[in-house]
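S.,

As promised, the S-adenosylmethionine run. Input:
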Amino acid sequence: MLDNRLKAVADFVPAGAKVADIGTDHAYLAMYLYQQDQSRQVIAGDKNAGPCEAARKTLGEADLQEIISVRQGDGLAVVQPREADTVCIAGMGGKLIADILEAGPEVLAGLKYAILQPQNAFAELRGWLYDHDWHIAKESLAKSEGRIYQILLAVPGKAPKPDDMELLLGPVLMAERPKLFSEHVANNIAMVQRVLQGLQKSRQDVAGKKQVLEERIARLKELL
Ligand SMILES: C[S@@+](CC[C@H](N)C(=O)[O-])C[C@H]1O[C@@H](n2cnc3c(N)ncnc32)[C@H](O)[C@@H]1O
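Predicted complex:
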């Protein structure tokens, strides 16, 4: 019942984790995490009332309302420091995910794992992790309803910052080239081509920018 995207997020959650699903919406991931491993302690957080209501409904129907706590609040504010050792933040923009991590330093300091599934701003989120003494231990790709999703398992600890291409595509994905990797690269080529087409309509002098994008497309094509 869980789609491939959320299943890939769940696959990175360790057994026995004290896990907070931030931005839980219907609590499908939170419920699955507990159902797969009842030694996990699961918190379902969301900023908005509607999603919290939907989460309570899902959990009530599964008779898990006493087991998984639904908490309304902004980002990591729903978790006490060291109450969670793992967070999942899925289905949000990469910038918002970075903002959520940045806004909760006490909670962040107690985490062993952050499992992140950004919808965009991939390079920015990866860059944020390396700039804040986190790094990426694992990455995976999942395909759901024709769309490719990137899932990151980040852990605390300083590591050399990957180069621009690795930040964009994923340093682990580039090293391991999993099954969906060519499709992932092709999507990125299409994305850069769209930006390039936008620039071609511009009346300003964009020759420098166009050259950077053309070089990026050429480098991406080498990875296909
Ligand atoms: C698109 S849904 C993703 C739901 C689920 N995580 C998934 O991946 O399917 C985004 C959810 O994040 C919640 N959200 C947005 N900003 C948030 C924040 N700062 N803190 C907690 N939840 C937030 C929204 O209310 C919404 O329920």
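Residues 6, 22-25, 45-48, 51, 74-75, 90-92, 100 surround S-adenosylmethionine (CB under 6 Å). Strands lie at 18-22, 41-46, 69-72, 86-92, 113-118, 134-144, 147-156.

- D.
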